[in-house]
Amino acid sequence: MLILRTIPELRAWRSSLSPSLSLGFVPTMGALHAGHLKLVEECRRACDAVVVSIFVNPLQFGPNEDLARYPRPFEKDASLCEAAGVDAIFAPEADAFYAKDHATYVDVEGLDRHLCGAARPGHFRGVCTVVLKLFHLVRPRRAYFGRKDIQQFLILRKMAADLALDIDLIGVDTVRETARGAEGLALSSRNAYLSEEQRGAATALYRGLARARDAHRAGERDAGILKSLIRAEIGASPLARVDYVEIVAESDLRPVEEVPAVMAVAVFYGTTRLIDNVAV
Ligand code: AMP
């Protein structure tokens, strides 16, 4: 497995590949867990070669967010990638990726107004900018993203459609905790910030979503009632501070009164903000 640290190294490797090879790409910020590895596994299955990027992208962090303390266990990440059959890791330092006077950004208008976009101004602009730049460098046939970050996936898919990128964006279902006491919690690198108590309380995100999904299966179609079921489950713990509980259309992420839709939540436990969603 190659470890590429600079743009020229990545370019040289990419140019050495046969044009007929189908290259798969999994962009990440590292601190890899079984969710990331599921993306790698799907990518491995469908593509001839796999590139994983590990880059904590400063452009997508707000001024009061966790850029400095975001976990960066590079050696462990590299061994996980090697064991998963990754061909190359691209892991640049921030100053090897962005020039000091970087001034070009990608905005996907509209979709970033809702859900996390409302609470994290500039976040999706940072995500789109880094992903488009990575796409240009890696030139993959397919790229893999988690549906856990549903808004990110839908925004990137819109970017790819609007800019006529010749890349298939594949959304992979959320991988969840199976460990006792944490069952159902969506895997996230940020779970590492949680205390044992917060981790237990955070299982309410999925419990609430699953409860609303069950109610929907039983015939409930009123978005207000489904949201109140989710809120009741999450709000049962005093450790939770709800940022949003929304039911939105997958097409434009606007709140809808009736399903089918995506039920999405963002909740703080201490300073850690967790997200999750379930489609109905
Ligand atoms: P991150 O390193 O958090 O930027 O995530 C990199 C990719 O992994 C993104 O496409 C995420 O949506 C995806 N991902 C993160 N957590 C999970 C999970 N629990 N299940 C599936 N995919 C995930």
Provide a descriptive summary of the structure in words.
The structure is a single chain. The protein has about 280 residues and is α/β, with parallel strands linked by helices. It is built from 10 helices and 9 strands. It has helices at about 5-15, 35-45, 75-85, 95, 115-120, 125-140, 150-160, 195-200, 205-215, 225-235, and strands at about 1-5, 25-30, 50-55, 90, 140-145, 170, 240-250, 260-270, 270-280. The strands form 2 sheets. Strands 1-4-3-2-5-6 form a 6-stranded parallel β-sheet, with helices on both faces. A 3-stranded antiparallel β-sheet has the order 7-8-9. The longest helix has 16 residues, at about 125-140. The N and C termini lie far apart (about 40 Å). About 40% of the residues are buried. Adenosine monophosphate (AMP) binds near residues 36, 38, 39 and 149. Adenosine monophosphate (AMP) binds near residues 145 and 187.
Write the layout of secondary structure elements.
Elements: E1 2-4, H1 7-16, E2 23-28, H2 34-46, E3 49-54, H3 74-83, E4 88-90, H4 94-97, H5 115-119, H6 123-138, E5 142-146, H7 150-162, E6 168-172, H8 196-202, H9 204-217, H10 223-235, E7 240-248, E8 262-269, E9 272-279
Parallel strand pairs: 1-4, 2-3, 2-5, 3-4, 5-6
Antiparallel strand pairs: 7-8, 8-9
Adenosine monophosphate is lined by residues 28-29, 35-36, 38-39, 145-146, 148-149, 172, 174-175, 186-189.
Jot down its keywords.
3-stranded antiparallel β-sheet; globular; 2 domains; 280 residues; single chain; Pantoate--beta-alanine Ligase, Chain: A,domain 2; 38% helix; Rossmann fold; alpha/beta; 10 helices; binds adenosine monophosphate; 6-stranded parallel β-sheet
